[in-house]
Design goal:
102 residues, globular, mainly alpha
C-alpha cells in the first residue's frame, strides 16, 4: 500500500510537470528512492518476490493516478530500465538480484 501511495504521488508530480513523465528518459523511468527503499526492505526481510510486489505496487499506484489525470502510464520495461538509478546504498549483489527478479 505504501508503494502504491508513492506511485500516486509520483504521478501527481509528473502531472504538475505539464503531464510529462518527469522522471522518464530513453525508455526508462526512475521509480524514486522511496519506492526503492521499500523494495529493498521487502527484499531483505522477505525475499525477491516481495520486492517485486512492492515495485508492482508502485506501478499500479502510478498508473491508476496517471489514468485519472489523463496522463501517460508507465510501462514495466521503463521501471525495469530505470530502477538502478534509485537503488542507493545497495550492494552490487542486491542490485543484481533485484534486477534479475524484475
Amino acid at each position: 500500500m505504501r508503494a502504491q501511495r508513492v506511485g500516486q504521488h509520483a504521478a501527481d508530480l509528473a502531472h504538475l510537470a505539464d503531464g510529462d513523465l518527469a522522471a522518464t528518459e530513453d525508455d526508462a523511468q526512475h521509480p524514486g528512492e522511496d519506492t526503492c527503499r521499500l523494495a529493498l526492505e521487502a527484499y531483505r526481510s522477505f525475499g525477491l518476490e516481495e520486492a517485486n510486489a512492492v515495485i508492482r505496487g508502485y506501478q499500479a499506484g502510478y498508473n491508476a493516478r496517471a489514468s485519472e489525470l489523463g496522463d501517460f502510464v508507465v510501462r514495466w520495461i521503463e521501471i525495469k530500465n530505470g530502477i538502478s538509478w534509485a537503488l542507493h546504498g545497495v550492494s552490487e549483489e542486491e542490485t543484481w538480484n533485484i534486477l534479475a527478479a524484475l
